[in-house]
Each structure stands twice: as structure tokens, then as C-alpha cells.
Write a structure and sequence with these properties.
Structural class: alpha/beta
Number of domains: 2
Distance between the termini: 49 Å
Order of helices and strands: EHEHEHEHEHHEHEEHEEEEH
CATH class of the largest domain: Alpha Beta
CATH superfamily of the largest domain: P-loop containing nucleotide triphosphate hydrolases
Protein name: G3E family GTPase
Number of helices: 9
Helix content: 25-40%
Strand order of the largest sheet: 3-2-4-1-5-6-7
Strand content: 25-35%
CATH architecture of the largest domain: 3-Layer(aba) Sandwich
CATH topology of the largest domain: Rossmann fold
Largest sheet: 7 strands, parallel
Pfam families: cobW
Length: about 325
């Protein structure tokens, strides 16, 4: 009889550290056969490139949430396909805007369409950005669902908050989900022993059988993509990013600078630009905002301050 595949779901808002944790898990399980399904909010998979750079095979489902009706069918088909492969673990990294509260109904749909039960659902690992969580929770509704459906909560970026802030965030997490195990970390540097523990079943009594985007039109995130050929001055790109940060909830990408190819990673007010071996055909940057037209205007305004080349967003 085929051994059940251990299935883990990774959730967490944009920039919380999902891909960082997944890379650590992959290294931890390097003696095992692993499958990965990666779900990005936009249609460019920056995180998929990072995992491929680590030598992993990644199946991407992009431009929406795998828990929403628009991509649910493709997600179920992917789970069925993976269930027939000789893997021991399957990790699903969901979009930062995903509401995963219908994960159990999706697994039941997989079981109904495949020969027998192929997966041992080991739970949802929810990564929380301690530095931005309380502010994000007020305006971004999927974050609450992600926390409530988490079996394990990795409270990340603890090095960036005070003891008082850490206590406030922890108390809020407990109020939302008292059953989850909370694991504090910085840079997602945690012991992964919890992955072998017993899973508390949180989802049975959770309302919301049909998951989809639960943001209102006024605050629903919109992704804009910059694609450009050529070499750019790193200092000017930093100034451009500084100018648009107040309108953004997430910025990431790869840019060809006069100092070489670098990865751009912006969450909240924290900007990280570091060397990378990844070299796309052209520079790519994903900008995600809930500010609508004002954000779009600000992008063009800030760009024109520092560059003569025409900016086209997709």
C-alpha cells in the first residue's frame, strides 16, 4: 500500500517570510522526496525563481488564490497529479492574500476524484510578521482567516519589535486562535520538530465553507509589474522605492543594476536589496498596493523624478 504523502500548507501575508521558511524546510528534508505547489498573487513568480535557484522543481499556480473558485479546479488537479508521484512531502505555499478556510473541502474533493486517500494533511503553518501584523490586521481581512486556520503560527521578525509590541501581537494571536502552537523566530530560524507532532484539528468548526477574496473593492490589493531592459543605478531605484513605500504593501523583484543583478524585497518600511545569482531576461519588479489610482499616479510620479526611460506597467 502506498504511504500517505504528508501535506503542509504555508500561509501568511505578503512579506511575512513564507518562502524563507520553505527554503529552510527543504534543507531540513533534503534526504526526502518533496513536491512544491507555489501560489502567487500576481502573474510573475519571484518566489518560484528563488526556489528553482535552490534546485527545486516547483509547480506554479499564479494570478489569484488557489482557494478561490477561479483557480480551485487547477489546484485540485495539481493535488491529484502529485498524489500519484513518489514523493513523501507536499508543501503548498499560498498567496499572501489567500483565505485558506476551505482547505478541508478541497482535500475531500481530491479524495473523491482519486483512487483512495493519498494525503495525510499535517496542518497549516501560518507565518506572521510581528512588525506589521497589528496594522495589517485592521485593513486586510484574509490575515485573520490565515491565523484562525493555522495549526502552527511562526511569529517572525521578532528582532524588529519591542517586548511590549511582541506581547500585544502574541495576545492578539491567542485571542484569534488559542489552539495553535506559537513559535517565535527571526528570519524564520526555528526548530522544525513541530512538523512531526500531533495536529490539532482547527478547521472542523471554522465557518466559511466557500473561500474567496474577502476584501472589499476599496481595499482589495492590486498588483502592478515593472519589466525593463537595461542597466539601472541602484541609488536611484532606492529613491524610487522610498517614494512609493507609503502606497505599497509589498514590493519584490530582480533588477539589473550598475552594481550587478540584485534581489529587491520590501515589506512594510523595510527595504532589502541583496546580490543574487538569478538573472531574468529583463529586470522585473512586482508592486502590490491597496491604494488604487492614487498609488498608480504615485508610481509614475516617483519614476519620472529619477529616470528618463518611459515606464509601462502591466
Amino acid at each position: 500500500m502506498k504511504k500517505l504523502i504528508k501535506l503542509f500548507l504555508l500561509t501568511g501575508f505578503l512579506g511575512a517570510g513564507k518562502t524563507t521558511l520553505l527554503k529552510k524546510i527543504i534543507d531540513h528534508l533534503k534526504e526526502h522526496k518533496i513536491g512544491i505547489i507555489m501560489n502567487e498573487f500576481g502573474n510573475i513568480s519571484i518566489d518560484g525563481m528563488l526556489l528553482r535557484d535552490q534546485g527545486m522543481e516547483v509547480h506554479e499556480i499564479n494570478n489569484g488564490s488557489v482557494f478561490c473558485s477561479c483557480l480551485k479546479g487547477e489546484f485540485v488537479d495539481s493535488l491529484i497529479t502529485y498524489s500519484q508521484l513518489p514523493i513523501e512531502y507536499l508543501f503548498v505555499e499560498s498567496s499572501g492574500m489567500a483565505d485558506p478556510s476551505n482547505i478541508k473541502s478541497l482535500l475531500e474533493e481530491v479524495i473523491g476524484k482519486s483512487a483512495g486517500i493519498s494525503y495525510d494533511y499535517r496542518g497549516a503553518i501560518c507565518i506572521v510578521d510581528a512588525n506589521n501584523f497589528l496594522d495589517q490586521l485592521e485593513v486586510l481581512l484574509p490575515i485573520e482567516r490565515q491565523v484562525k486556520t493555522g495549526n502552527y503560527i511562526v511569529l517572525n521578525k521578532m528582532d524588529m519589535v519591542s517586548a511590549d509590541m511582541a506581547k500585544q501581537v502574541t495576545n492578539k494571536l491567542i485571542a484569534l486562535n488559542s489552539n495553535a502552537q506559537i513559535i517565535e523566530s527571526s528570519y524564520c530560524d526555528v526548530s522544525l520538530d513541530f512538523m512531526d507532532g500531533n495536529v490539532t484539528d482547527i478547521l472542523d468548526d471554522f465557518p466559511g465553507a466557500q473561500s474567496c477574496s474577502i476584501n472589499t473593492p476599496s481595499n482589495r490589493p492590486v498588483g502592478h509589474i515593472i519589466k525593463l531592459k537595461g542597466i539601472f543605478e541602484e541609488d536611484k531605484i532606492r529613491l524610487f522605492i522610498d517614494g512609493i513605500i507609503p502606497c505599497m504593501i509589498r514590493i519584490k523583484g530582480f533588477f539589473h543594476f550598475n552594481t550587478g543583478w540584485k534581489q529587491i524585497d520590501v515589506s512594510g518600511n523595510h527595504i532589502e536589496i541583496k546580490n543574487t545569482n538569478i538573472r531574468p531576461e529583463m529586470s522585473e519588479m512586482v508592486l502590490i498596493s491597496t491604494k488604487g489610482l492614487p498609488a498608480l499616479r504615485e508610481i509614475y510620479t516617483q519614476w519620472s523624478k529619477y529616470f528618463d526611460i518611459e515606464l509601462e506597467l502591466s
